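pasting for ref. prot 1 ->
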Amino acid sequence: MLDGGDCCTAVEADPHQPLILERAEKEPEKKWHTVVSDRVKKHCSCSPEKAKSKILSFVPILQWLPHYKLKDWILGDIMSGLIVGILLVPQSIAYSLLASQDPIYGLYTSFFSSIIYAILGSSRHISVGIFGVLCLLVGQVVDRELALAGYLPESSFVSNNSDALLAGQGNSSNVKCDRSCYAITVGATVTFTAGIYQVLMGLLQVGFVSVYLSDSLLSGFATGASLTILTSQIKYLLGLKIPRPQGWFTLFKTWYSLFTNIAKTNICDLITSLVCLAVLIPAKELNDRFKSKLKAPIPFELFVVIIATLASHFGHFNSEYGSGVAGDIPTGFLPPQLPTWTLIPNVAVDAFSIAIVGFAITVSLSEMFAKKHGYTVDANQEMYAIGFCNILPSFFRCFTTSAALTKTLVKESTGCQTQMSGLVTAVILLLVLLVIAPLFYSLQKCVLAVIIVVNLRGALRKFRDVPRMWRVNKIDASIWLITMATSALVNTELGLLVGVLVSAFFVLGRTQQAQVLELGRAASREHYENVSSYHGLQTHFGVAVFRYGAPIYYANQSLFKKSLYKCANLKPVKEKAQHFKFEKNKNQEDTEEIPKGINVRSLVIDCSGILFLDTAGVNALKEVRKDYRELAVEVVLAQCNTSVLDSLERGGYFDSRKDGEVGKNNMIFYTIADAVSYVQNLNLSGELSLPVV
C-alpha cells in the first residue's frame, strides 16, 4: 500500500494488513547540459581498450577470423559459397534487367556486396546481394530520370553497351553519355544516397526502427512488389518493346500496353519463354521437395542459361528473329567515379524509401537466422554494413543491395558457418567477371525474365496463406492485404508508407477499443478475473472491481470514463441530476418519496493493464474519483506499475487539497485483495459520507 505517494518502511508480513513496499529512491534528474556533457564524454573519450573495442565491433571479421575453426568450418563455407556463387551468376544478370541496367552491373553489384558484408556484417548466415524488390524500386527511378533527361525509351533504339562504358570512363564533359551510361549513373547515385541514409541512421543509433515494420507489413509489401515485378517482365516473355510506365497505377498501365501491343509478340521469344518456364518451374519444385535429401540445390537456372545461350548463338535468334539479347558484357573492372551530385535532390526521397526497405529486410533476416542458430546480431552494425555495401560499390557503378531470403536459405542449407562463404562467392563472381562474362552475349532477355518470374514463386505463394492469416489474426491479415494492394495497384513506395500508417492506426485503434471489465474473485484463492469470461467468480457486496487493459492518454481518456461509468452502471451526472430533482420536488410538494439508493459504495480499479498515463490520463482518474466521491462512492487504485505511480505523483493525484476534495483516502494498493479489504472496512466503519449535492 502506498499513501499519498510517500515511501513507506518495510514491515513484517501480516495477513490482516495490506502489503507495504518501500519505493527505492529515484536518482535526481540531471540537467540537459549535464546529460549532453556525459554523452559526449562517453562517446568521444578514447583509450587503447575502447579504441580496440570500437574497431572490433565495427569490423566484425576481425573478431571471428582469428578464431576461425579451419577443420570444422572450411568445407561448409566453401560448399555454400560455391553454390550461392553459381546461383548468383544468372540471377545477377537477370535482375539487372529489372533495375534497367546492363548485365555487367548486376555482376559488379553482387561481387562488391559479398566482400563488404563479409567484412562488416554481424550475421554469419545471410547472403547480401541483388534483391528483386529493390531492383524494381531502383529501375522505376532510373526510367523516370531517363525520361526527364530526354532519353528515348529502350524500345526506340538498340543500345551500344561498349559506347556506354567508354563514356563512363571519360572525364571530359565533351564525351556524350548515352542511355546505358546515364542509367547506371542514376542507379549509382540512388545507391550512394541510400547508403548515406543507412550509415547516418546507424550513427544516430536508430536501428530500433526495424521493430515498427512488422512481418505482416514487410510480407505484404514484398508480395505487392512481386506482382509489379511479374507484370513488368511479361513484355520480355512476349518479346514486346514497350516503355515502362511511370507514376501511380503502373500495374494497370502496363497491362493496358501489353494488350494493345499483343499483336507484336515475338514468336521466338514466346516459345523460348514457354520452354524455359516448362523446365524451371518443375525443376524448382523438385529442388524444394527434395531439399532435405540433397546436399545442395541443383543449379537448374545456370543449366538453362548455358543451353539457351548456345541455342540463341547457333540459331542466330537475334539477327534472324529479332529476339532481344544481353549484348556485350565486357570483362574486368571500370575505374571508380563519383556519383552525380546534381542528381541527388531528384532521387533523395526515393533513396530514403529504398534505404528503409533494404535495412528492414536485412535486419529481419539476420535476426531470424541469428535466433535460429543461437547468436546475436547488432541492428545498428547491420545498418552500417548494408550502408557501406551501397556507398562503396556505388563508386564502381553498382546499384542497391540488401539481404535476400532465397539465397540465404540456400547458403544456410549447404553448410554455411561464417561469412567466409561470402568471400568464396566473391571469388566465383570474380572468375565470371574476368573470363566468362562475354560468353553470355547471345543470352535472350526473355530467359532472364523467366528466371525473375520463377523466383517470385515464394512471394506469390503468400496468397494461399491469406485464409489462415485471417483466422489467426484479422488485424495482421488486414495490414498484409492493405499493404499488398497499395504496393501492387497504386504505387510501390506508397505501399510501404500506407503499411506503416495502417499499422500505427491499428495500434491506436486497439487502445480506443479497450473496455472496462468487471472482475470477480475466484472461490479458492485471492485471484480476480473478468466475470463475463469465467464461471463461478464471486463479487463483493457494495464493492465493484474493474480492470482497464490499455494506457490512458489524451486520445482515449474520455472513452475510459464513459466505459467505466457504463460498466459500473453508475453515471455521476445522472445520479446527481436525480438527487437534484428529488430535492426540488421535496421542497415544492413536500413529498415523502425517497430517491433510489446506490448499491455500490466503493470502486477498485485494477491498473495492471495500464502501461502509462499522460497528463490527460491522470486528470481523467482525478475526475472519476471526484465525481464518485460526490456520490459518497470511494475510488481506489490497485496494482499500478511504477511508471503509472510516478505519473500520478507528478500529476498531483495524491494531493486532494489541490482539487478542493474532502477526505484523505488517496491510497494505492499492490493487490486487489488489499484494496477490497480496505474499502470494505471503510464501508463498515461508516467513514463514507452521504452524497454532497
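and prot 2 ->
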Amino acid sequence: MQADAVVLLGAGNMEVPPTWIRPEALIIHCEPALKPGVATCVAFDLINKQPHLSFLFWKTKSDHNYMLCCVFWVSDIEISRAQTPKPVDQLAEEIGLLPEELEAYGRNKAKVQLSLLDRLHSQPDGNYVLVAGITPTPLGEGKSTVTIGLVQALSAHLKLNSFACLRQPSQGPTFGVKGGAAGGGYAQVIPMEEFNLHLTGDIHAITAANNLVAAAIDARMLHEATQSDKALFNRLVPTVNGVRTFSPIQISRLRRLGISKTEPTSLTPQEVSAFVRLDLDPSKITWQRVLDTNDRFLRKITVGQASTEKGQIRETGFDIAVASEIMAILALSDSLKDMKDRLAHMVVGTSRSGGPVTAEDLGVSGAVAVLMKDAIKPTLMQTLEGTPVFVHAGPFANIAHGNSSVLADKLALKLVGRDGFVVTEAGFGADIGMEKFFNIKCRASGLRPNVVVLVATVRALKMHGGGPNVSLAHQKNIVLFYLCGCHSNLKKQIQIAHLFGVPVVVALNVFKTDTRAEIDLVCQIAKTCGASDAVPCHHWSQGGRGCLELAQAVKEATRRPSNFQFLYPTEKIRTIAQKVYGANDMELSPEAKSKIDYYNQQGYGSLPICMAKTHLSLSHMADKKGAPTGFILPIRDIRASVGAGFIYPLVGTMSTMPGLPTRPCFYDIDLDPDTEEITGLF
C-alpha cells in the first residue's frame, strides 16, 4: 500500500487485487525469467525512458526517490522445492522416536512401527483437535492448509508439541479437478510431489488387495459351476507328499459351518458339499473392483465374456480405490490383529440360500492381510516449517467416512504428550466428514475431541448467500452475500458440531480478494452463531505466523469442557437426515427397504451409518446452497461394509466412481527429462 510502483514477475495476465496497492501506483509486468534485481533495473529504465510513466512519479516525488515493490507469483510446487526438508531420521529423533521404530522410504519420509504404542502406553494423550469445514465450493476451502498452518503456529512459533494427521491424496482428484492435498502456499507438507504421488504405496496396496478379492470371487464361481464336489474338494485340499491337511483359514470355515473335524478324510459327503460350495448368487455380489483413477466408463462393465470363462458372464463395475472397504478398514483398525479380523469379516456377497459370504469364506483374507501389512503403518513427513505430520489412509468423505487413520491419531497423541496438540482433518463439509468422524471414527477409536476448528471462506459464503457457484471476483453486496451465507450454512455447520457437545472455533481462510470489512463481519457473525471464537487466518501467505491467532484461540478453547456425545442410538438414517442435513424426512427405495430387512436379519442393524452423499450441499441436491430445508432425502440403495463396521446408504444419484471433467488437471502436469522435475502439480 506504500509502494509507488509494483513489479509483477511471472504473473501472466493476473490482476492485482485493489486492496494491495494505492490507486495511483504503477503496475509493471515483467517476464518470469527475469531475476528480481534485473526486474527492478528494467522497471526503473522503463520509467525513465517513457515520460508519460515518469510523470506519474515525478508529480509526487520531486526528489526522484521512488519506493518500488517487487511481487513474485510463486506456485505451490516452487515454494515446496525452495525448502530443503530435514532428514527424516533427524525429524524422528526430534519427536522422540527410536531408530528401530522407523522404516525409511528414501530421505524424506518413513513408516513408523506400531510397537511405539506399547512403549508409550502410559504416556497421557495430548489435546485432540478436529478441522472441519462449511459446505465447500468445488475447489475446496482450505482445510488442509488450515490444519498445516495451525500445527506450524503451535510447534514452530508457540513451541508446543503438535502433530498434523492427514489423509493420503487419491490420484483421482490429483489428476482430475481439485489437484493434490498437500496444502498450499506456505502451509504445505513437503516434498509435495512425494506426498501427492504414490507416497509409500498404501493406495496401491489397497488396490491390489481389493482386486485380489474380486478375482477370487469370479474364479470361485467359475470353478463351482464347472466341477463336482469331489473335484472341488481334491483341488481345495490337495494331497502334498502323501499328506492331506486343511489350512488354518479352511479350519475357520469349517468351524463357522459347525463342523469340528480337522481330518479331511473324515468329512461326510454332505459336509464336503457344504465346505466346497459357497454358492454365490451372481446378482447379489456386492464387491467391486477398484482403480485409483477417475474413470466414469468403468462404473458398469460386463465380465466373463471370453470363451475360457465358460459362460460365466455378469455385470459388475469399478469404484475408485479410496472407496474400497479395505481403505475404510485401514483407517479404522487399531492394530494389525484388528485389521486382519476386519478383513476376514468383509462380506462380498450373498449365497443363493440367503447367507452372507465373507472374504474368509473365500480363503483370501490372510493373503489380503499380507498385502496390507506395511500399509497399516503411518507415514511420517513434515511441513514447510519442519513440524511433524502423519499421512495415513485416504477415504473420501462423500462416499466413505472421510478421515485419516485411528492409528495415526493414537500414535501422535502419545508422542505430543499431555500439553501437546494433535490436529486431524475431516473431509468436505462438517455435515459429512465431521459427522462421520464423531459417529464412526470416535466409536472405533474411543477417542474424544476437545475442539472443532470450522474452516470458512468468503467465496463460499458468497455462494451460499446467493452468489455464483465459484467466483474469485470481489462482491460488494455484503448484506446479501454475507448475512445470508453466514446465517445459513455457517450457522448450520456450527449447530451440527454443537449436537455432539464440542466447542467450535471458526477459522476464516483469508484470500487476497477479501476486504477488511468482509473479514470482520464474518468473524462477528460466526461468534453470534455460537462459535467460541472466530479469527482470520493468513497461513497461505505467511505460514505458521499467519495462524498464531487461531493457535491461541484453539489453545483457549481446549481449556473449556467438552461434553461429547454420539448423535444416535437408533433411527440412525432419519436422525442424520433431519438433525444434520435439515431434511423433513427420508424416503427409502424398495431396494433400500429390502436391504435394511436383510441386514437386520444378519445382525448388522447395530452398526453405525456412513452416508454417501454429495459434498456440495447439505441436501442431496448439489445446486441447493445455504441451509436448505423442507426436502425429502432419497435413499437409493444401502450397502454394508461389515469388516469396516458400518452401513452406507447411497443418497440420490451419488456414484462411487468419479468421472473426469472436460479439462482435467493432467493437462498441466509434466516431467522435465533433464532435471526430472515435475511441473504443473498443485
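The CA atoms of residues 339 and 355 lie 23 Å apart.
Confidence is low (pLDDT under 50) at residues 50-64, 471-476.
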